[in-house]
Each structure stands twice: as C-alpha cells, then as structure tokens.
C-alpha cells in the first residue's frame, strides 16, 4: 500500500507545492493536500493555535489538524531561507516542532531543515535531504535521485511560467497588453490596472484574503501580483533602501509596491497586511511612507485577521475603486481642457 503524505495547503505550500508534491509523487507516495481554507479549517486553527500567532499561522494549524487522521506522514519542512544572505519568517522554521509538541497524536512529521543563508547548506545538503526522505519510500537510490531532479525541473518550469518579463511588464503598464482573461476585462471600457500586494498564501487563498482577488477580477480589474514581477526590478528597488531588507519574501512585496509608486504607471495599489505579522507591519509602514513621499498612485492598505468580514472589506474596496475612477475622470477632463486651450492659443 502506498504511504500517504499530507501537505497543509497554506504558507510556503503556495510557493513550493510543485517541488514538494512532484518529489513525493515520483517516489511513489500518495499525495494528500488539505483543501483550500474553509470554515472548518479556519475554526480549527483559531481554536487550537496560540492566540498570539499571526492569522496565516493559525490557518496552518487548521490545515494540519484537518489532515491529522488522513495521512501516514505530514510534510512540514523547516525552511530558513532560499537566499544566501536574506532569511524567511522564523515561523517557517519553528512550525513543525511547535505542532509536534502541542499535538503528540499527529502523524510523523517529515521536517528537513534547510537554510541557504547557513554555512554548509548548499547542493550537498539538498542531496542529503533528498536521500534521507527518499529512503523512507524506496530503497532504490537512482529513483530517489531522479525524483529529486524531476521535482526541481518542475518547480523551475512553474516559476518561469509565473513571472512576466520586463518587456511584458512595460507593455502592461502602457495598457498595451492585459494580464487577465479578456472576457472578464471586456466588462470595462478601460480596465483599471491595480497591483495586489501581499503574501502569496494570502492573495491566492480566498478565505484568507476575504476573496479580494476574485472580487477585483469580477469587477474587470487588470491585476498584477508580486509573484509575477520580474526579479531584477524587485532587486533594483531594494538597492534604493539605506539598509538590506533581509526578510526574503518581504522583498518581493515591498519591491512591487515601490516600483509602482515610483513609476506612477498604474491606477492603484492594494496591500494586504496580516494582523500580528511582524514582517507585514514593517513593509506596510515602509510602503505607506514611500507612498506619502510620492503620492501619485493611490495606496489602500487592508489589515486582515480572523474577524475580517467580506462586507467590511467590500465597502472599502468599492470606495477605493470609486475614488480612482473619479480621479481618472478628473485627469481626463483636465487633459481635454489643456488640449483645447492649446488649440485656441494657436
Ligand atoms: S511572514 Fe507574517 S504572515 Fe507569514 S507566517 Fe510569518 S508572521 Fe505569519
């Protein structure tokens, strides 16, 4: 019988799902992924996670407990960083141990530790991790090696498909192309272009984000998210800071906000901030300060926690979109008046 491996569908699973699931699938394991966050999962998380944890971590607890009796193993890697210098959130490293100590009856956790920022954590370390996991599922070292290779290839292809090029971004900023399905955009004559910034595990999880992404798409908004942004532009923005932003995943979010604030090339930026997330409180404040220095592009920041309601968020987003529409109309009128006065001057 195949061994069942459970993946909590939250936090870094949104970034590395392809890598992790391909690896275990290739090893011959049965993959069991918890569903997208629903009310049962949320309630489990809110009930059992420590009160002081951030909302996203609470949801991770809910996903883990949902899988508890359905799998032989849980896969909860302790990923310190995937960068030579910068680090991830400390919660990513601690979660597996915390869950194990709080719930002694949960299945065995496969919890490899990897941090590229740590000395000795290079390719050799990755190989050691691959083999230490692989031998739980097969005794064939070649199969393990091939599984690892296929997993990394699949992840690489996935990430490549997610990102857009600098050229594409420029075209999008100039309204020459759209990043969304055209039939949705046809609902608006001139679709608003908005950057939705925040953690990928918030933006792409409906319950976590109070369905903001779908709400904007259903209003015919042409959206971009940080995971689509060309890396080189993010790094350019980070170089402008007086110090190194060493929270690796925060760079993508802050860099995206800074890029659009500086270029003033889109209609607005909507930033999702998770309540009690230390990293979000830093980059939220930095985006707000940056925006107040260059106030051309409207920035709306929404703080989200387990008490956020769809109605409350909807009202604020509607007001934000209305404000942008009015601003654009005013700008168009100004342009018309200006061109009329130029003609009369002649
Ligand atoms: S980065 Fe923030 S939201 Fe994500 S797990 Fe860490 S504290 Fe929570």
Q: What pattern of helices and strands is seen along the backbone? A: EHEHHEEHEEHHHHEHHEHHEHEH
CATH 2nd-level architecture of the largest domain: 3-Layer(aba) Sandwich
Mean pLDDT: 91
Number of domains: 2
Low-confidence stretches: none
Sheet/helix structural class: alpha/beta
Report the β-strand fraction as a percent range: 5-15%
Radius of gyration, taken over Cα atoms and rounded to an integer in Å? 22 Å
How is the biggest beta sheet arranged?
4 strands, parallel
* CATH top-level class of the largest domain: Alpha Beta
Bound molecules: iron/sulfur cluster
First-to-last CA distance: 85 Å
Our count of helices gives 14
What percent of residues adopt helix (DSSP H or I)? Answer: 40-55%
What is the β-strand count? 10
Strand order of the largest sheet: 2-1-3-5
